[in-house]
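Limitations
The structure tokens in this dataset are predictions for the assembled complex, not deposited experimental models. Users should treat interface geometry with appropriate caution, especially where small molecules or nucleic acid strands are included. An illustrative entry is reproduced here so readers can see what is and is not provided.
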Amino acid sequence: MSSNNGNKIKARLTDPPETVRVRVKRRERPDAPQYVETFEIPYRRNLNVISVLMEIRKNPVKADGTETTPPVWDMNCLEQVCGICTMVINGRVRQSCSALIDDILLEAGGNEVVLEPMTKFPNVRDLKVDRSPMFDHLKKVHAWVELDGYHDLGPGPHTPQETQQERYAYSRCMTCGCCLEACPQYHDDNYIGPQAIAQVRLFNMHPTGKMNRDERLDAMMDDDGIANCGNSQNCVQVCPMNIPLTRAIYETNREVTVHGLFGWLRK
Amino acid sequence: MPEHDSFEHDVIVIGAGGAGLRAAIEASAQGVSVGLICKSLLGKAHTVMAEGGMAAAIANVDERDNWKVHFSDTMRGGQYVNNWKMAELHAKEAPDRVRELEAWGAVFDRTPDGKILQRNFGGHKYPRLAHVGDRTGLEMIRTLQDHGIHQGIEVHMEVTVVALLKDGDRVAGALAYEREKGRFRVFKAKAVVLATGGVGRAFKISSNSWEYTGDGHSLAYHAGAELQDMEFVQFHPTGMVFPPSVRGILVTEGVRGEGGILKNNRGERFMFDDIPDLYKDQTADNPEEGWRYTQGDKSARRPPELLTRDHVARCIVREIREGRGSPNGGVFLDIAWIKEKRGDAEAHIKKKLPSMYHQFKQLADIDITKEPMEVGPTTHYMMGGIRVDAETQMSTIPGLFAAGECAVGLHGANRLGGNSLSDLLVFGKRAGEFAAKFAAENGGVTIDNAQVDDETKKALAPFEASRTENPYEIQADLQEMMQDKVGIVRKEEEMLEAVAEIGELWKRTANAKAPGNVEYNPGWHTALDLENLLTVSEAIARSAIERRESRGAQFREDYPEKKPELAKFNVVVKKAEDGSMEVSRATIPEIAPELSEIIKEMG
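Predicted assembly:
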């Protein structure tokens, strides 16, 4: 379970509706058109989006009484640590396992919940998207420590807790994609986005990872690099793990500037 | 017959959690070609949910710790039916695996002088768990994933394996389908590593991820491998019971450690009603003393809520069965009550149990500083699994390896907290290493096309028009039945009923219908999962019947005592010639004298 996701403790829904109307954006296959289906299920306290979807899946009948196929979505841990169930809920990108219906209805008023797939990734079917671009980003920025592991590693370097804390902030990334969905600059290969930049920061702080610092910073200077950040700061608002993404961008940017300057002097 | 896409690797690894990733990294480093197959996406495996840490005797916090102590703790925890060779290797190699993970970029909490910090955990004599906050599993997965992505391992994401392929006695690869388009894939491989994790989704209430359907156990079994210790399923006493979608999610022991108490629907603190004789001297006999213990008073004895996991779980079941449960079928776990004792209760709870506070707030809209939680036992870990050689992790089928939760041996009748993450690394590495070696030393394999056709036909059977059953309903019925009849408290007659009901569920599964087409169709996936779930459920029930005693995680109401003569063997199941499940006993080899000495020495 992650930290608080900025979720405030909210008042309970005092006058709950009898039913929850769930509008699900669907698509049969990647090249098929999207359409919306509406379901209606009885309201109960403590419902969350996944429990609503599971109820629909068991009995896939639309609000108008016609049968349909069960909606498709991804889920795994159900405790907001794997990030796979991320979707856009009433316009806001977040994990569906930790999205409580009461909170959503309190925010929105009425009894409607709208579920849509993330838009920045290829839509595979219904609420499911292809998240592999995030791994391509990690490969591009060399987000690993170059080590074969075949020598005596010994006890490892002493690291103060403060340094550990700084790295810990970035190591919490669960590649859920929220920051990329919310980023206005992340589209059409225009910008690599905050997810990879935070990992550049993480690996550039690692005692051995530093060795490949230049390679990471070079990647940051590409056409889709860090300069494309528009400073909207949406990423840090939506990150469910509270990763200081804007700090990562700021600090990496500073590193890139220095790196660029010295690179130019070397020429 | 649909067309197949063909792939060829020296080694394929099935499952991409801690053990699978570690095995793939290792095999790849040995220079063979590796394919990594995962049912879900890379980095989303159940390992991410691990919280506590990984046990390794690196002695950073207490210098008295060493591999011998760790070894003997593991054996005691497992009630001495462990594979002692695996327990030895694990205790000796875990420190290297932890250091290696750190070198690869994992972040660990630090001691004041900057070394890896280690924490206390049940059953470990000294502070031994390397950890980062309460999300060590995510750190491990992120590190292994980041380390693995550039090694040239070919990752096949969202691909489900439906059968292992054989070439004579030897494994020759696997038949799978990719979930998106529903196309079948034939993987030809000289060696196969199974690292598919556990079986928690055979039970109604489980702390396991949705992927935990016993796939590896079942694949190995149907390919002719032996499964062992399947009766040993670990139930954690406190999981969430409401709302339904979060049922089973773990509520850490730390809540009780901070003074949380268990109550039934009459407001009675029922844990005082049944304190085993063995623990009477160490357990408080009044609430006041128990409270003082939780606040650090060393002269006080521990409250009965902190008795061993198996006992607490059984007491909770008793309350529920006798009609004293909470509205949603659990009991109450109350930490809010400490406001009677401390003025700063609310702030204190938030500080000491931050993730629990947020877990209940976010997932159930319950403020644990104000209201009690509803909790019940939850299926947590499968000690049983594929029988493997301790050194190489090879199963009884040549070329077929297994590591992590789907393999058996290290944990015996009961796993200690923290020994799972280290298990994944130690034996994941070994499986990868020896699978690569096997692939290098043995010639090619031939795919049996008839087997491929046959298995493909079976996998597509849920689309037959004549079928009528909803697979989700069959799964729900199985989970309900296993929870009731082969759960925490077991009786011969109920388990015999369970075996009979599993027979009925097999028949219904033969009629399970997948609606629609093969393109990303969860109904189809569930219909296929059912065969795995039924196989492991039957193995659990039959093995539990065979072990007529209570030991570790297995509690038999009809045989409540431990029997010394039953400590001498493991229960093994294997698929017989006629397709039925054959149960036998395998004698545990005599422990090496030097290891026996260590156990004696450590007490």
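Some entries come with short summary sentences. For this one: The first strand of chain A starts at residue 19 and ends at 26.
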